[in-house]
């Protein structure tokens, strides 16, 4: 297929349709509204349904119903709206329903602002809802990867019967880049024989549920979920890394921030510095092992985020005190510049901090 | 007295002894059996004079636990 | 000999967890019967609420989907939009539908979703132990209204059928009760008509059933029926608030 | 080759559109491209800008900070972005709306009375295309055919009938620059 | 004051009233409904207001309004209900409003069950809402401490203009223990001159807000918030520890779980084992430093939680790879027994795991 | 010489961010004037919504509290319950009040909270760029209804004043518009009466104002006024739906 | 022609040139000044023949930006 | 001294109440105490139990696993909790509702026909107090005066008029145990 230039938000829609998603339930919020708007235009053309829900809460619960009846379905929002979906997401994780949820993050807390940010890392990776559950969290760095991960995300969701979250920032949602729609690697996907589709008199009733009143049963259910999460941790970690065997400093960054970091690294390389990069593509499961490959001489790990330091927790867990961990972040819609990162790396390199 | 036209069958173990059937039986033939406790720990409803049953199904209509089957002759 | 009444296939053989004499059970039966008699059991998908009916998924003999508290209409919307050929209903309490789920029920009506809702109004939060509902009567005691509901503090009880009837997409709105065999029969008729509306693709339908909660009302099952008749019906008049018009 | 272009003005002046056209055209010419918009806090009438990158290398940061060129449609944007043009870069100023002159003497500055030129063409809304024409002429970054293709991509077939007047605007912008270029060439710095 | 026997949930209400809280907005949910019920009985007697909101969302937003107008106010819920409050909590943190929020946790995910659990640790300590914000999170282990922390919690909230969360599990909410109401240590509390009370023509209008459309301003606001969080980290860490200078194994546990651990430790001591305990009382700010005091010979840290492992992240961050970190947890309302913990400790001690 | 019209002290000197000709501005002025004229500016606490009026806290010259999207009535409830002697109002758009905030507005009415709501119905989501609102008219285009709102898909627009008027605690419900100087004067009268209701402690009051959104309607300000008159008023009839009764 | 009884004062810099005042002035004396652009970038409203103003305040009533003060004699 | 008492039965049998009375009484006697309830999944008519700890030491885990005594009001609870009574501990079985006999031979087991005794007293609802009386007699853990104070605390002054019949039930339970104790003493194990 030929490359087309697409805005991130619209590319998400196109990729979802490519992946066979015909149902979208959403609610407007900047900076992701182009996605529901795209779906409103496109889904009816292919016999799908776009529905603007009365709220984010209704939207996620519509997704819950639609996923329960066995189809590929998507919703999206941005930070405050995503906060509202937490209960519903926890229900879907509890009931083991597949779906893809997109969060195009903006500055917070509260109403905050409408500019790009990465400030919902904790919420996405640890669950803002109740209970022990995990979402597979994918953090694309460019529009092509966004498209690829959406398409694969639907497969992952179906394979594990688990919600998948695409965690983007306002930047990736708003920017345009060329994209190509490629077939993902084929996965063996299980039948959705658990779906509520009406018995047709052919089988016992199916029940979609997350309630287990007896603690023994709820524990059993949790054990089953944890086993699934372990399997995902084993099989689905995605990470890109670069120069970590010999970088004097290694930077950890994800999403669009990692691109800014790459520009900074090029600049540093031109100046003769050796700087590595670990770019987690799955934020959960987190690529802890990748950090084991960092060379022993490395002077420190710099975590760069568009927030006040959230992934830094995972970096600390990963390096186990082996290297000092530093942080550079901008917030509220401010975007770090390559120069700022260059400066910070030089400070670490020079032992100034 | 009118000839019996109905018969009711109670699935005793499902009964919760709520007494709603008792209160709506026009012939007043249902009572709670205070001498028995069923599996669920309740005094179940019983009919003593089955021949008085007119098969009106009032009892079944009000039973929240679908304990009662009603037959008519 | 003819069997004039036996258990419907619309219900499973699982015994309910409802308290003795709770009329939730009667309504379950009516719903099961309606599903069976209308021939939609095989294509029915029910949505269970959070409330005493939370375990309804174990009782209705069809595919069931449990919802979050108040969100059953949204869940049902998701299902129905995906499977318009299926029969989709929600079964919700007054805390679920008239309090936390107000937006969801209003908007399912507003969009005219082709689903059916059974609304159990027992003027109380049953499952959580008797807290005040928006439908609790003035003067009625509840654990969060220990001196009885006070209008100056909490307003007058909300009348959901009247409210929903103002919305165009709600095509069938009726309030019934199950305090006598006669009322039970009328309730069943309303439920069947409401379900038929969906089968004919006409829009949203709701049947409000005034129901008892002997446990939290602190009354016997029979006293509860009388209390309902004497207190709830005068405030919540029974009857049809809306039927589909010719052109619907 | 790497062009990093900042395009800025009021919302409604079409800065986003010319950025998109450029980006499309870049892609058509098989470059690596990115387009990144930014809106001010106001809902309407506020400032808006977009950064376009057209490069032979994969695009790293899509944020245009140090630009190779800047197309500036109003005064607040001049104040904000003038300083970020790389030394030796090019600055295009819509002199119809901006009286001020650039304070930089280490870059090429072009003053284009874009609104007047557009009004002359009978459609004040094509001022943005005048500016784009100026940019293209001065930098030769992208071919005109690709730009035309890009225009149709951005505005859709339905508005392809607007192409002629927009082409006219591009041309006029280019012509104006050719004049000014002659002048600039005489300048030494 | 004489000791009284109180149920945890009711003790919370009594303590709040003791702390001068006259306003409560809540919504019923097991296992915390005794708290709103208590407030419904007691607040009207002291001229306060109990209001049952139409939902958890409405409740937290009523708290937002009440806190904004300058009074001490409380809300409470349990896990799924707390998930729904996340947006509102983020708003309050963003607008810097004091309040006390109680989460009496139950098993999850989704509707889960109604039995005790500690499964919202992540949500409480990392924020399930959007944006970089922090709640002061207090985890009492017995009803007396619950009362003390509620009373101090109101002071902390007012001192820092920040929401404070009391994180309890169903056990502490439901159990009865004797309590005494003690005066907390006096804090110098700032005037609430920012509150919306009507100008009375005497001052410029006050505005309660979390919106900053210009990214520069939102970043400035975030920097201010972070400075406050740093101050809290410096001043408000609370932790209890025990035998960590010579324990062969150190257990980390909080809330009621820590009591079960204490019973296990007594048992182990009787059998001749030396086992230490670190019991964080503030889950945020987390007592990372306390872990520095653990003796070098310690064979491992065992984290015990009523979940699938959440605080273990903080323990790993704290020990920086110095000791192996183990986990023991029960979920879904199952409560670990002292014997299970004893067994686990012996395994660690014996090098079996 | 007499000044027959000058800017009210109810507004600050900050220039609004509203688009040219957007009638949000007119309504702001009327609210400011009403607060000033009724003498409650000093004790007023306003609650700003999320919507185009999100920055209203900068414009009203009194204490202001920003709310989360749809939750202004809950925030106002919190304030009013703490400070019953203050004057508390919300100012909300149709996305805010009739969509995400449905439960909150219904229950503020249900409880009869003594607050006043100004409801700006412009049949669109203004701030986020023209998505469909529950009040968008049939056939009206929106970015999420690109072919125009379709009844079969989204139902007929919801009439909030009619719906709220069914609730007992809502004591004053009126729909006005601001398309002509005459309508502006009537709107002001309604707002003042509604506010008086609160001052007299009578219950919840709401004034729905049919308002324009030239930007997202794609019309000039003047065309917008005409479009409103020709399309919105026929569907959303102006007038009073409820006034306090003698005994309220 | 009737003697002028009113006077309007426009705070020009606040005007957004929306034209609503123009459309409601009964004496048609308000227009948008296409020759000026104010600080906000709009063509502001102006009154040419002030003596025709009847001080009806229609313009002020419709101005969303409270640009206009009206006096009457 | 540390008493860890498990009290279990159907909801509605008053197991929670006697646990609370015991706990109050323990507090009145200046012991460290805790009371922890647990409800089954059913809303009504299900099983319910509470664990009470009365100790000279601060209470560690409030969860009663290995109990020193167990008061058992129905069959399912016997099945569930019998095995957790400590060796040498005491088990009180409501023999009115439980036909089965305990399988333990390393503990003292008392069978009390609590419902019958209560019915004799004319109030079936005091069966729980009969059981409590039996417990108190067998263990002497708490004084009767403290129990009476505890009763008033739990049921409030408004229901203090019920104290006499409840005292009577306590007494009868105690008496029954004294009889059985005599028998037990003759037993050797
Ligand atoms: C989000 C959330 N809030 C609260 C609860 C607790 N809860 C369970 S059922 C219920 C109310 C039930 O009342 P109602 O809907 O009237 O049903 P009933 O039990 O009376 O049939 C509540 C508040 C919950 N499970 N989830
Ligand atoms: C929870 C949440 N959801 C969505 C948004 C995005 N949002 C901002 S304003 C708005 C709608 C505004 O429409 P309306 O209430 O009609 O006001 P108008 O702009 O038309 O005056 C939306 C959806 C948000 N800020 N928060
Ligand atoms: S069928 Fe009628 S008469 Fe027979 S037992 Fe039932 S209610 Fe009584
Ligand atoms: S109505 Fe049903 S459950 Fe109730 S007593 Fe009669 S048979 Fe038993
Ligand atoms: S609590 Fe009330 S509503 Fe619930 S099952 Fe019992 S009686 Fe019925
Ligand atoms: S977007 Fe619409 S509602 Fe919002 S300010 Fe502009 S014209 Fe007014
Ligand atoms: S006051 Fe009346 S006559 Fe004078 S300018 Fe305004 S609208 Fe025209
Ligand atoms: S109505 Fe006001 S803003 Fe609009 S043109 Fe007239 S003076 Fe200017
Ligand atoms: Mg109810
Ligand atoms: Mg609107």
Keywords for this entry:
heterooctamer; B: 73 residues; alpha+beta; Alpha-Beta Plaits; two-stranded antiparallel ribbon; two-stranded antiparallel sheet; 2 helices; 4 strands; globular; D: 189 residues; alpha/beta; Pyruvate-ferredoxin Oxidoreductase, domain 3; 6-stranded mixed β-sheet; 6 strands; 41% helix; 25% strand; binds thiamine diphosphate; binds iron/sulfur cluster; binds magnesium ion
Give a nutshell description of this structure.
Chain C is of the alpha/beta class. Chain C has helices spanning 24-37, 72-82, 94-100, 102-110, 151-154, 160-165, 181-199, 214-217, 221-235; strands at residues 2-5, 44-48, 63-66, 87-93, 116-121, 170-177, 204-210, 239-242.
Describe this structure in words.
The complex is a heterooctamer, with two copies of chain A (353 residues), two copies of chain B (73 residues), two copies of chain C (248 residues) and two copies of chain D (189 residues). Chain B has helices at residues 20-24, 58-62, and strands at 6-10, 30-32, 45-47, 68-72. With 73 residues, chain B is α+β, with helices and mostly antiparallel strands. Chain B has a single domain, classed as 2-Layer Sandwich (Alpha-Beta Plaits), CATH 3.30.70.3270. The radius of gyration of chain B is 11 Å and the shape is globular. Chain C is α/β, with parallel strands linked by helices and 248 residues long. Chain C is built from nine helices and eight strands. The longest helix of chain C has 19 residues, at 181-199. The mean pLDDT of chain C is 97. Chain D is of the alpha/beta class. Chain D contains six helices and six strands. Chain D has helices at residues 15-28, 75-81, 114-120, 127-139, 144-155, 163-186; strands at 2-10, 32-39, 47-55, 67-72, 85-94, 108-112. In chain D, α4 crosses α6 (163-186). The F-G interface holds F 1-8, 11, 15-16, 18-26, 28-29, 178, 180-181, 184-185, 214, 220-222, 225 and G 6-7, 14, 16-20, 23-24, 40, 42, 55-58, 60-66, 68-73. One thiamine diphosphate sits between chains F (50-53, 69, 93-96, 120, 122, 124-128, 133) and A (27-29, 56, 80-81, 84). The site of one iron/sulfur cluster has 14 residues of chain B, from α1.
